[in-house]
Each structure stands twice: as C-alpha cells, then as structure tokens.
Amino acid sequence: MANSLLVRLQALPWAAKEGFAMLLDTVTGAPERKQAALAYVKAHATAGNPASVLAALDDFGRNRRFLMNIGDEKGPLLEKYIHQAGTHPRMLELGGYVGYSAILFSQMMGRSGQLVSIELNPQAVNVAQQMVEFAGLSGQVDILQGDSHELIPQLSGHFDLVFLDHWKNLYTRDLQLIESNQLLKPGSTIIADNCGPLFNPDVYLNYVRNHSLYTSTYISAHLEYQTIEDGVEVSTWQGS
Ligand SMILES: C[S@@+](CC[C@H](N)C(=O)[O-])C[C@H]1O[C@@H](n2cnc3c(N)ncnc32)[C@H](O)[C@@H]1O
Predict the structure, then answer these.
(1) Per the structure, how many domains does the chain have?
(2) pLDDT score of 1 more than 70
(3) Catalytic site includes residue 147
(4) Which residue of 95, 159, 165, 220 sits 20 to 30 Å from the alpha carbon of 148, by its own alpha carbon?
(5) How many CA atoms lie within 13 A of 126 on its CB side?
C-alpha cells in the first residue's frame, strides 16, 4: 500500500508532462501519435529488419512521444519464456497497439511461430498491420480488430503463450474467458504486462497467485522508457 502510493507519487511528474504533451499535440494539430510513430519507423528503420523497427519505436517512445509498448527493458526479460514454449509456438496477444510486442515476440519465436493479436482500436490495427508488414513479419502475425471479450470465444486450438496487455481491469475477466474456451494446455504461459504498483494489479495478482492451477512469478523492472517501477507477472497453467 505504502509502496504503491510512493510509486504513484513518483509517476506524477511524468503523468503531468504526458498530459501537457497531449494537450499541446491537440492545440498544434500535431500528427496523430500512432501515425507519427509509423512515419518515424519508415524514415529511420530498414524494411524487412524487425530489430531496426523495434529500435526506431524505442527511440520514438523514449525521445519524442511516449508509446505504451512493452519496450526495450521488460521485452528482453521475457525471451527465455518465449523460447521455453517449444519449436512451433502459438501466441495470443490482447492489446496490439502499434505492433511493437507483436514484432518483438514474433522475432523471438522465429519463423515457425504464429501470433494472433486482438486490438480494439481500428486506427491502431491499421498502424500495426503496416508496422508488421514493414518488419517483414506479415506471414507470422494475424491482427484481429475487435473487443477481446467478443473475439476470444471465436478462437480455437491451444495457445502456448498468452500476452495480456490491453486495459488492465480486463485481465482477470479475459484470462477466465480464455480458460473457459479451453484455449490453454498444460504448460501454457501467461505473461501479463503492467503488474507494477502504478496499475493497481491486486485483483489479477490475487487470481493467478492463489489459483491452484497456476504457478506465478513477478519480474520487476520499469515502465517503458521511464524510471517508474513496473513489472510483468508470468504464470504457468497446470490444468488440462
Ligand atoms: C498497452 S497497449 C498494447 C501495447 C502492445 N502490447 C505493445 O507492447 O506493443 C493497450 C492496447 O489495448 C487495446 N485494448 C484495450 N481494450 C481492449 C479490448 N477489450 N480488446 C482489444 N484491445 C483492447 C488498446 O486499444 C491499446 O491499443
């Protein structure tokens, strides 16, 4: 509780700066942030080179306008879990935004991996599709536009990996939906971003940590491109 309050106090200058930057963008008519990020990538990265696309997005998110990507600190910490998922991993992502994590995880999974990304915002879907295509990964990534709650029941088969990174209050609801639609198999790994104190993650953390069919670990790091504490919860499904 005290730690959570302290982290929120530490985040105040960043939140105020971010709010002011958004206001300034509106007043000056700056290009929409996701579109601006795509233009920046096309100008600074190499087509067909996913690492260069990620580097350009990190540069944009850190030095120009904030982007809510998993980012270059938390992202690499997850590589070992992606590699543990076998030789033909299948991954489900909730919340695709501009395509950063889809590109990162597809690159980590290698050419035999497949990623399904569900994203609500049509503008973000459009940008993510172009981003993934520019990175040369269209064959590995399937981006579905819509609400996770409506699209999850339409999926079939099992996922080795699930990345929860949409709105934080939806994690528990949608993980339960994934379970009840039998999209998990023994050993499936659930990776949940933004489980640090800033995001008030108690409902989700209590669920995975107290559920007899999950084993769960917290990886401590920082909010993307910031010094504010954040972390990722990695949980393994032991059910059938
Ligand atoms: C933190 S961003 C995702 C960042 C991305 N995973 C990455 O690391 O590059 C959250 C995204 O979730 C999307 N979102 C929020 N609620 C959703 C829902 N119910 N279904 C699908 N997408 C949703 C938002 O539109 C937003 O683009």
Answers:
(1) 1
(2) no
(3) no
(4) 220
(5) 8
